[in-house]
Write a structure and sequence with these properties.
Blueprint (H helix, E strand, L loop, with lengths): L3 H32 L8 H22 L11 H26 L7 H33 L3 E7 L4 H9 L4 E8 L10 E2 L2 E5 L4 H7 L4 E5 L9 H9 L3 E4 L2 H10 L2 H5 L1 E8 L2 E8 L4 H36 L5 E7 L5 E7 L6 H8 L20 H8 L7 H7 L3 E3 L6 H5 L14 E3 L13 H13 L3 H17 L5
Parallel strand pairs: 1-2, 1-5, 2-4, 5-6, 11-12
Antiparallel strand pairs: 3-4, 7-8, 9-10
Helix pairs in contact: 1-2, 1-4, 2-3, 3-4, 10-12, 10-13
């Protein structure tokens, strides 16, 4: 659910970014045309078309790129700069595509096309810094903030206060300290006035101007709090509860990283309330764009692969009679079975001979890697070293069984030996390449390290991260690093 702060922030950021873009267009024109004289004369209509395409590219990028839920106030300057660079690279790519599709007259004005995102990459973080300062300084004068009260104890209150202070859309009007004494009422606690204690907190809530109440107090069954909750609800207040049971579940079941990747959702089932906790899933928008990238990349990969496979097929078949394509059952997304396809780099009896060679396995764990594997043909060594044997997997990506970037799928035998935490690496569709492949590939000999890299990829997934892994993989393959 999108809250009040997120809605307002989304609108503010859009307006600031749009103003920054228009200033960038103006400054880019002044620099490239007025100062450097690099732009040939264009008609007014050409300029109007170009500016409209720039704005359209900006709006598409903003809708695709901007995280509506992230609190802009808590973002560091470094993160602002990083986001600005990514934003403008994507906007420049979309702008170029729109110019090509529209056959715009200013398509050949490359100086202007480069200057706009460069200037905007500087103005964007500056605009966000000014926006953050304005939000924190003037929120009380806008009359749009939510008036908040806190009900807590001396031990728990600091964490709640700190979290709410970073939310520019809320103004803390006071707090109830249930374990405070009457003498402490009226004093400041962490900069917030103490308005009441356990004895008279409902009197303060009844008369105070409040929109929301944050409750973080010890409870057993919660029965004793029900009458107060019923009265608060009758006043139209929004009440937020700290659920200690969720904290306890995270403490026992999750480490710091995995706790951060969980989503929590309240729902109903069988006539009662349930709290759903699970790994954050990609938004539908991200799933669509990842699949679009897979299809586009797979089509290009298939076109490149066909002539290469045709050339390699002749010596491969001459050295080792048998099928050209090796088809093997693998385990994919959350334990689903599928068939992976590779160019056959081994002799046809390779699977039978694997059992004899298990004692020479160089991997510590549930994967098999061996230097100078006798099952591999001479041509097979070449196509493995150059990763040509992986080319048929572009067709698996096109079919939807795999993705360009993901985690490498285990064999059925490996999967049957998995411990529970190993299955976490299968919570995303398997890929041709991944973080493991571009971080050393076969040089990594510990399976737990492979799992760690795969989980790191899943927990920090982004479309931009996939693009970076693809470029890194190309470099690793061309350099022949880590391949066996």
């Amino acid at each position: 659910m999108i809250n009040r702060r997120e809605k307002l922030q989304y609108a503010y950021v859009f307006l600031v970014d749009l103003v920054a873009l228009l200033l960038s267009v103006l400054l880019a024109w002044l620099i490239t045309d007025g100062l450097m004289g690099l732009i040939v004369p264009y008609s007014t209509g050409d300029w109007v078309q170009t500016i409209c395409l720039v704005v359209l590219a900006f709006m598409i990028t903003f809708l695709l790129f901007t995280n509506q839920k992230e609190n802009i106030v808590t973002r560091s300057v470094g993160r602002e700069c990083s986001l600005s660079i990514r934003f403008n690279l994507l906007m420049a790519a979309i702008y170029s595509a729109l110019m090509l599709l529209a056959k715009a007259q200013m398509l050949d004005s490359r100086y202007f096309a480069v200057a706009v995102p460069l200037v905007n990459a500087i103005l964007l973080p500056l605009g966000h810094i000014l926006l953050k300062r304005d939000l924190m300084r003037t929120k009380s004068r806008r009359g749009m903030e939510s008036l908040v009260g806190i009900m807590s104890t001396t031990d728990n209150a600091p964490a709640v206060v700190s979290a709410l202070k970073s939310d520019w859309s809320k103004r803390i009007c006071g707090m109830v300290l249930l374990d405070a004494t009457a003498e402490e009422v009226g004093q400041l606690y962490d900069g917030i006035p103490v308005r009441a204690t356990f004895d008279d907190f409902m009197d303060w809530i009844r008369r105070a101007a409040l929109d929301e109440i944050f409750v973080d107090v010890p409870m057993d069954s919660g029965e004793s709090f029900l009458p107060y909750l019923e009265e608060m609800e009758s006043m139209g207040l929004t009440v937020h509860f700290r659920l200690k049971i969720l904290d306890r579940i995270e403490e026992v079941c999750c480490d710091e990283t995995s706790a951060a990747r969980l989503y929590r959702q309240l729902g109903r089932c069988a006539g009662g309330n349930i709290v759903t906790m699970g790994t954050i899933e990609m938004q539908l928008r991200d799933q669509i764009f990842k699949r679009m990238m897979d299809i586009a990349g797979a089509l290009v990969g298939c076109l490149i692969s066909i002539p290469i496979i045709a050339v390699v097929a002749i010596p491969l078949k001459l050295e080792s009679p048998g099928p050209l394509i090796f088809r093997q059952k693998r385990v994919g997304l959350n334990g689903r079975y599928f068939y992976i396809h590779k160019l056959r780099s081994m002799y046809v009896d390779a699977e039978e001979r694997k059992k004899e060679l298990m004692a020479k396995n160089e991997m510590n764990g549930l994967m098999f890697k061996m230097k100078d594997d006798p099952r591999i043909t001479r041509v097979g060594r070449f196509i493995r070293k150059t990763s040509i044997d992986e080319l048929p997997q572009f067709f698996d990506v096109l079919r939807g069984d795999m993705s360009l970037v993901g985690t490498r799928p285990p064999t059925v035998d490996e999967y049957k030996q998995y411990e529970s935490h190993h299955k976490r690496r299968l919570s995303m569709k398997p890929g041709i390449t991944g973080l493991w492949q571009c971080s050393g590939r076969s040089n990594i000999e510990n399976f737990e390290e492979v799992v760690k890299l795969d989980v790191q990829y899943i927990d920090n997934w982004s479309l931009w991260g996939d693009v970076k892994i693809l470029f890194k993989t190309v470099w690793v393959v061309l350099a022949g690093r880590g391949a066996k």
